[in-house]
Amino acid sequence: MRKKHDMYIDYEHFYRKHRRRGASKAFKVVLTVVLASAVGMAAFFTIKSHINFDGDKYSKQKDSAGNNGAEDKISAVKDNSAGNHAAGNDTPDPENAGINSGKNAGSDFMETVQTPAVTPVVQNPVDPIFTKERIPVKAKGIYVTSSKAGSEDRNRLIELVDTTEINAMVIDVKGDTGKISYLMNSPKAQGIDATTNQIADMEALVRELKEKEIYLIARIVAFKDPYLAEQKHELAIKNKDGSLYRDNNGECWVNPYKKEVWDYLVEVATEAAAIGFDEIQFDYIRFSTGQGIADADFGKEAGTKTKEDIITEFTKYAYEKLKPLGVFVAADVYGTIISSSMDAGLVGQNYVEMSKYLDYICPMIYPSHFGNGNYGIEYPDLEPLLIVRKVLNASKEKIAQIPEGEHRAIVRPWLQDFTATWIKHHQTYSGKEVRAQINGVYEAGYEEWLLWNAAAKYSVDGLQAK
Question: Which spans in 232-373 are helix H?
Answer without folding.
Answer: 259-274, 307-322, 341-347, 351-355
